[in-house]
Design a protein that fits this description.
By secondary structure, the chain is mostly helical. The protein contains seven helices and no strands. The protein has helices spanning about 5-20, 30-50, 55-70, 75-95, 95-120, 125-130, 130-135.
């Protein structure tokens, strides 16, 4: 295939890719699919047009995508801070109903135990056993 035919055949796809790359809202699936197509075209151009401008053009586009993907990688220290600042609160918020239920059950059981001990001082010995209560008192 001649270089002009190759360019004419893929020109629209490359322009769409550049437009998608420049937009604020990037669809990861579409970006991934277009990136695969661009790298395929880059491989083809490296094979058949090694010293031509189309190879340089495609290489620049692929390079922009690579840099946009890996530019935002966080360091381990930043990742640790991000966990405590963002991820943990989000997980707790998502689990708030379960946490509330466990909180209510824990404190309900605690107050039942306190009330039972106030009514009957021998209640811990009945529930836990004499050996454990004596060991705890020591």
């Amino acid at each position: 295939m001649r270089e002009t035919s190759f360019i004419r055949q893929n020109k629209d796809k490359w322009q769409e890719f550049e437009k998608h790359l420049a937009s604020d809202k990037k669809d990861p699936d579409k970006l991934s699919n277009l990136f695969v197509q661009i790298t395929d075209d880059l491989s083809y151009s490296r094979t058949f047009y090694p010293n031509r401008s189309v190879r340089v053009y495609l290489n620049n586009i692929a390079q922009k995508v690579f840099q946009s993907i890996y530019r935002n990688r966080t360091s381990k220290r930043r990742r640790f801070a991000e966990f405590w600042k963002d991820e943990l609160p989000a997980t707790i918020w998502e689990s708030r109903k379960e946490l509330l239920l466990s909180f209510v059950l824990f404190w309900g059981s605690f107050f039942i135990g306190v009330f039972s001990c106030m009514q009957n001082p021998e209640f811990p010995r009945m529930i836990l056993g004499d050996a454990y209560v004596d060991m705890t008192l020591e």
